[in-house]
Amino acid sequence: MPTHLKRCTKCMNYTISEANCKNCNSPVENVYPPRFSLQDKYQDYRMEHFRKKMHEKFPDLKKK
Ligand SMILES: [Zn+2]
């Protein structure tokens, strides 16, 4: 698994550690792993945490 996978912003050609695309010489951008994102996990965690805190502060909410 290459660590520096990049993709051309113009022709979407994948390349590794190139400054510019080999096909069209356009700038390339870093490609990140698709949507197994840590951010979402943290968001879930935060929401869960938030919900618990809310229930602690406002126990009445549980009844609904
Ligand atoms: Zn290109």
Describe the structure.
It comes from Candidatus Lokiarchaeum ossiferum. InterPro entries: H/ACA_rnp_Nop10, H/ACA_rnp_Nop10_sf. Belongs to the NOP10 family. With 64 residues, this protein is of the alpha+beta class. It has 2 domains: 1-32, no CATH class; 35-64. Helices cover 31% and strands 16% of the residues. The chain has one helix at residues 38-57; strands at residues 5-8, 14-16, 28-30. A 3-stranded antiparallel β-sheet has the order 2-1-3, with no helix packed on it. A hairpin with a 5-residue loop joins strand 1 and strand 2. Residues 8, 10-11, 13, 21, 23-24, 26 line the site of zinc ion (ZN).
Average pLDDT reading: 80
Uncertain spans, ≥5 residues at pLDDT below 50?
Answer: none
Report the structural category.
Answer: alpha+beta
**How many extended strands?**
3
Determine the fraction of residues in helical runs and give it as a percent range. 25-40%
Beta-strand content estimate: 15-25%
Bound compounds: zinc ion
* Helix count, DSSP H or I runs of 4 or more residues: 1
Domain count, please report it.
2
Query: What characteristic shape results from the CA principal axes?
Result: rod-shaped
N-end to C-end Cα span: 49 Å
Sheet bearing the most strands, described? 3 strands, antiparallel
Using only C-alpha atoms, the radius of gyration works out to 22 Å
Strand order across the largest sheet: 2-1-3
* Helix-strand topology string: EEEH
Keywords:
ribosome biogenesis, 3-stranded antiparallel beta sheet, 2 domains, 64 residues, 31% helix, alpha+beta, binds zinc ion, 16% strand, rRNA processing
